[in-house]
Design a protein that fits this description.
Order of helices and strands: EHEEHEEHH
Shape: elongated
Helix content: 55-70%
Distance between the termini: 36 Å
Strand order of the largest sheet: 1-5-4-3-2
């Protein structure tokens, strides 16, 4: 689980979160937002039922917290168990078609790789937005 902490007031962090949500929607992710006592959880998902069956769907939780002037975010483990289960079920049902189990195995590996890259991409995006926030604050001063 990644955890990143920044010294940003609530005003700045809310702009960063809104920007992140816009970015994710632009990239084709479906977002569910759950407000918590100390922040929020963004559940993001990409891929429909077919991509889920063949193991190419991507899903992850982003936990975002704001305490005083401390903005932090972390990522959940994702859906590794679901990915393995989808691949196993697909192998069982598609076995008679011989070559498809190999395709399902490959797509499950590709899906797992894409999901493992997602926290890094989101962290890079948030870091970029934080840099923009600090530049705006310096320009206003």
């Amino acid at each position: 689980m990644n955890n990143c902490l920044f010294n940003i007031p609530l005003e700045g962090s809310s702009k960063i979160v809104e920007s992140l949500k816009s970015y994710l929607v632009f990239k084709g992710y479906i977002i569910q937002e759950f407000l918590m006592e100390d922040g929020l959880i963004l559940q993001i998902k990409k891929g429909g039922w077919f991509k889920t069956i063949i193991g190419l769907s991507v899903a992850i939780n982003i936990n975002i917290n704001q305490t005083n002037d401390c903005f932090s975010f972390s990522f959940s483990n994702g859906k590794w168990a679901n990915r393995v289960a989808a691949g196993s079920v697909s192998l069982f049902f598609l076995y008679p078609l011989l070559m498809l189990p190999l395709v399902v195995l490959i797509t499950s590996i590709v899906g797992a790789y894409r999901q493992s890259e997602l926290p890094g991409k989101i962290t890079s995006y948030i870091n970029g937005e934080i840099s923009k926030y600090y530049k705006r604050k310096r320009a206003e001063s």
